[in-house]
Write a structure and sequence with these properties.
Layout (H helix, E strand, L loop, with lengths): L11 H4 L9 E2 L1 H6 L6 E5 L6 H4 L5 E3 L2 H5 L10 H10 L7 E5 L5 H12 L5 E4 L2 H7 L30 H9 L4 E3 L3 H5 L23 E2 L15 H11 L7 E5 L4 H13 L4 E5 L2 H5 L15
Parallel strand pairs: 1-5, 2-3, 2-4, 4-5, 6-7, 6-8, 8-9
Length: 301
């Protein structure tokens, strides 16, 4: 059994970066010291769902963002019953600390983290730097799929309103001229492209952005090694450049809510913003909806 510090003790390497809630991140060194901790479950969630099978952090289990978190019929997240079964099957209950990580600067790991929050599962952390940093440091990887005893976890009713925004709420927000953060690529924001660079042109009939939105591509929050920038660097972007405030009522969006979950994590967990919602309908809904306003080109000052 590991003799490392308890999971409730903040990681010193993370605390040094000045975040509002440093306990929501852990470093690769911290996780390496806690691999044998029976109170922890490690969850890998990737854009490339085949990566896990090619090798993963020892003890990690896979959560497929599409198959495990999204309803197969309704454009929505899974029911409490399905979420409950997912956690029971992974050996997770209310006493478990879940550490998420993944590829692409933890892009989909933050999405999984955010969906867990919809069910009130708050005993969760992200691995700073994700899969890329762990691999770059030459830390152990395995193809072995772990098995843990089932739990009796009981999922509460999903509560969306505090951290999730719906189309009509976004429209009211836009009309009230409240802050909107578009985290897509610059070409998606201007309307030049309907999808991310190097991805198929699909998902929306119209290009552009929600009127009044500011453009902050999600990956600006990350360093080259996949770790999050320091709190001062993040404030320089969101507050210095875009004039946001921790007291603002903010809605973030992208194409389907995955990249904006990353920005939601940055604003709420790292900078301490009190009211940020992720509009997961995002551009696939807004850009295809009849009667909703759009803008093209750069930011309107």
């Amino acid at each position: 059994m590991s003799t490392a510090a308890p999971t409730s003790v903040p990681d010193r390497a993370i605390a040094a970066k000045g975040y509002a809630h440093p306990d929501t991140l852990v470093s690769t060194s911290w996780l390496a010291d806690h691999l044998d901790d029976p109170t922890i479950r490690i969850i890998e969630s990737d854009e490339d769902v085949l990566l896990y099978d090619m090798g993963h952090i020892p003890g990690a289990q896979k959560v497929d963002w599409h198959a495990d978190l999204n309803d197969p019929v309704v454009r929505d997240y899974v029911s409490p019953e399905r979420f409950q079964e997912l956690l029971r099957s992974k050996g997770i209950d209310e006493r478990t600390t879940v550490v998420f990580y993944g590829d692409k600067n933890n892009w989909w790991a933050t999405y999984a983290y955010w969906v867990f929050q919809l069910f009130g599962f708050t005993n969760a952390k992200l691995l700073d730097g994700g899969r890329m940093k762990w691999e770059a440091e030459g830390r152990p990887m395995t193809e072995e799929v772990p098995k843990f005893p089932r739990t009796q976890y009981t999922a509460p009713k999903r509560e969306d309103r505090a951290i999730r925004a719906f189309r009509d709420e976004v429209l009211q927000h836009q009309r009230a001229r409240k802050p909107l953060v578009d985290v897509r690529s610059p070409d998606e924001f201007t309307g030049k492209k309907l999808h991310m660079p190097d991805y198929p042109q699909e998902g929306a009939l119209r290009g552009g952005h929600i009127p009044g939105a500011v453009s902050v591509p999600w990956a600006r929050a990350a360093n080259a090694d996949g770790t999050f920038r320091s709190a001062d660097e993040l404030r320089a972007i969101y507050e210095g450049e875009k004039k946001l405030s921790a007291k603002d009522d903010v809605i973030a969006y992208c194409r389907i809510g995955e990249r904006s979950s990353h920005t939601w994590f940055v604003l709420t967990r790292l900078l301490g913003y009190e009211k940020v919602r992720n509009y997961d309908g995002s551009w696939t809904e807004w850009g295809n909806s009849v009667g909703l306003p759009i803008e093209t080109g750069g930011e309107q000052r």
